[in-house]
Amino acid sequence: MNSFKNIYCVGRNYIPHAKELKNPVPSSPFFFSKPTHALVEANGQEITLPGDRGTIHFEVELVIRIDKPYKKGLEVDELVGGMAVGIDFTLRDIQNELKKKGYPWLIAKGFPNSAVLSNFIEFPGIEECKKVDFALLKNGQQVQIGNIKDMVFDLQTIIDFSAEHFGLGKGDIIFTGTPEGVGPVSDGDHLSLLLGEQVLGDCIIKLS
Ligand code: ZN
Fold first, then answer.
1. Judging by beta carbons within 10 Å of its beta carbon (0-12, 13-18, 19+), is residue 188 exposed, middle or buried?
2. How remote is the CA of residue 62 from the centroid of ligand 1, in Å?
3. Ligand 1 centre distance from Cα of residue 59 (Å)
4. What is the pTM (predicted TM-score) of this model?
5. Ligand 1: distance of its center to the CA of 96 in Å?
6. Rg of the Cα trace of the chain?
7. φ/ψ bin of 72: left (φ > 0), alpha (ψ from -120 to 50), beta (otherwise)
8. What residue ranges define each of the domains in the chain, with the CATH number in brackets?
């Protein structure tokens, strides 16, 4: 976990998700980031989240890991070495308040354990990646399913944009946006992170 450097996250990268939260679809990539303290691996254990700050939503996302120093012209398949399925946990009530005030989202998006990661597997290349869906099960039922081919901004665009605006290097990871179906978690919920039929990680929610 400690080897990751920056955690970039893409907002509103799937049209049905932007619409379900009544947000406009962006015309250029929309980013926020999380502190490294937000990271936690889903190994079947309990993950503690704040129980006293309003509704917490799950957002399942494909996560990519950059394995090489970025250079302009390098392609996704050359730069990305690993991928995982992750959850971008969001304090939704707080985020709504922050949005109204025009404040940054850090408090709603950056709390400890808000960036959940499954095991990383070797990145199979964009074309192979498009052949498998990523999904989230809550208590055994599928609540979200997505595929990178439905992104508003594709992986190359996201990577080039990050590099240009924030810098991008080995060890950085990118949460690439959530499809529709985000919703609340409750104490005791069992969440499973799937790639195709394969469970790459799971955890139990502990609110405290
Ligand atoms: Zn997200």
1. exposed
2. 10
3. 5
4. 0.96
5. 14
6. 16
7. beta
8. 7-207 (3.90.850.10)
